[in-house]
Specification:
504 residues, alpha+beta, 7-stranded mixed beta sheet, 6-stranded mixed beta sheet, 23 strands, 33% helix, globular
Length: 504
């Protein structure tokens, strides 16, 4: 009898495989980073072949570390960086272009062209999303318009599209030898093409974008058996049984199954999701409407989401581009060398501003610089930028729901940073709670897969696995919180209107 479930977490900076036991504890893991490719300013790409090779490697690492074989694994779950678009040839299995990453801004002219008729909210009623460079749809159109021969191949039915969940699933289940071309509702809801009510591709929107329907994966629930791992792979014959986009997976892993349940993930970017139940709620405050999850034949559960483009990647930028630190954890030590931010605010609008502003014309800024400022203040301001952006998204979520959140469950790599979590609680004015298992993204994918094969009975059993590890409560007085928020909002306005005809 298999005792474990394995989750593949195909993220923005790395691919991981994590083995979980029945209590939701981590048994073993493997992880490997892939190259971040920046061909031009605003362009961000990944090599899909590298991602698939790394995925196979980390599966092997995770199994070998725990001395496990395929016979010990009940199911495979997949979670992934959403909106990162891969287009590949169904006959050869080769991508026609690198994966265009969710952070990429090259498709702004396509957004402008489509928004000329009806504005950026042209399709929002159907798909829950504004027209933005963030989502997969504009990236597919860019590939078809700009890669030699791609449109002809697509119209002949030879090209397939998927976010990285589809790419990994197709390869895992056989690739050119019968690979399953699917996606789940959560990933489909990030393309600009899925109707939120019918959970099917909107043919009129596909036609408007010039994307052939034959490219699109079949939309499935988040928890069902899609197929089995191909005989050429280590996990051969193990069911592939769960797919959730990374932020929805983290919500599932945090056991936020009830309406009003929420989580905030601190990763490359930050993503807050609030469960709105079986009702499609359209935001009036700059949030996205998305599918939270769908379990088999059950009704879909929806959510509001606040997406922040740059948080953890700002720390990477300090490390890789500026050389201010040698490793990401050093930022906390550097920030602790100063008492406060010294009046410095960093607004990391590297890809424009996402929620709640949706300003593609914004670019990053460091404001409040004086001769007094040193690298400790810069490090502290970089951490604080994450907390300030989260506060603005939380305010939007409270306004849309009409109910103020009483606490916030958090996960992701940055929640190990005590200084950041304390400042987060201070600037929110509510407790911040970290669970014992912080790898909630992978855990959510494991849960979805395990439910589909009966490894777990129901969501009540999953909720019983959740337990609190640490809680931070606010210590900042209201006057200081208001002063800092006022300065932050002032700093944000300095990033507006930067991009024009001369500056991209």
């Amino acid at each position: 009898m298999p005792q474990y479930v394995i989750a593949i977490d195909q993220g923005t900076t790395s691919s991981r495989a994590i083995v979980f036991d029945h209590q939701g504890n981590i048994v073993s893991s493997g992880q490997k980073e892939h190259e971040q490719i920046f061909p031009k300013a605003g362009w961000v790409e990944h090599n899909p072949i590298e991602i698939w090779d790394n995925t196979r490697e980390v599966i092997g690492n995770a199994l070998s570390k725990a001395n496990l074989t395929r016979h010990d694994i009940a199911a495979v779950g997949i979670t992934n960086q959403r909106e990162t678009a891969v287009v590949w040839d169904r006959k050869t299995g080769q991508p026609v272009y690198n994966a265009i990453v969710w952070q990429d801004t090259r498709t702004q002219p396509i957004v402008d062209e489509l928004a000329a008729d009806g504005g950026v909210e042209r399709f929002k009623q159907q798909v829950g999303l504004p027209l933005a460079t963030y989502f997969s749809g504009t990236k597919i159109k860019w590939i078809l318009d700009n890669v030699d021969g791609a449109r002809e191949k697509a119209e002949a039915g030879d090209l397939l599209f998927g976010n990285t969940d589809s790419w990994v699933t197709w390869n895992l289940t056989g690739g050119t030898d019968g690979g399953v071309h699917i996606t789940d509702v959560t990933n489909a809801s990030r393309t600009l093409f899925m109707d939120l009510e019918t959970l099917s591709w909107d043919s009129s929107i596909l036609d408007t974008f010039g994307v052939p329907a034959s490219m699109m994966p079949e939309i499935k629930s988040s928890s069902e058996v899609y197929g089995t791992v191909h005989s050429s792979q280590l996990l051969r014959e193990v069911p592939v049984a769960g797919i959730l986009g990374d932020q929805q997976a983290a919500t599932f892993g945090q056991a936020a199954f009830e309406k009003g349940g929420a989580k905030n993930t601190y990763g490359t970017g930050n993503f807050m999701i609030v469960n709105t139940g079986e009702e499609v709620v359209h935001s009036k405050n700059g949030l996205l409407t998305t599918v939270c999850y769908k379990l088999g034949d059950a009704k879909p559960v929806y959510a509001l989401e606040g997406s922040i483009a740059v948080t953890g990647s700002l720390i990477q930028w300090l490390r890789d581009n500026l050389g201010l630190i040698k490793s990401a954890p050093e930022v906390e030590q550097l920030a602790k060398t100063v008492e406060d931010n010294g009046g410095v605010y960093i607004v990391p609008a590297f890809s424009g501003l996402f929620a709640p502003y949706w300003r593609s014309d914004a670019r990053g800024a460091i404001v409040g610089l004086t001769r007094f400022v040193n690298k400790g203040h810069i490090a502290r301001a970089a951490l604080e930028a994450t907390a300030f952006q989260t506060r603005e998204v939380l305010d939007a979520a409270n306004a849309d729901s009409g109910v103020n959140m009483e606490d916030l469950r958090v996960d992701g790599g940055m929640v190990a940073n005590d200084a950041l979590m304390q400042f987060q609680a201070d600037i929110l004015g509510i407790p911040v709670i970290r669970p014992k298992v912080t790898e909630t993204t992978a855990l959510g994918a494991a849960y979805a897969a395990g439910l589909a094969v009966g490894f777990w009975k129901d969501t009540d059993e999953l909720a019983a696995n959740w337990s609190e590890d640490k809680r931070w409560t606010p210590t900042m007085d209201d006057g200081e919180r208001d002063r800092q928020l006022r300065n932050w909002k002032k700093a944000v306005t300095k990033t507006f209107d930067w991009v024009d005809e001369d500056v991209q």
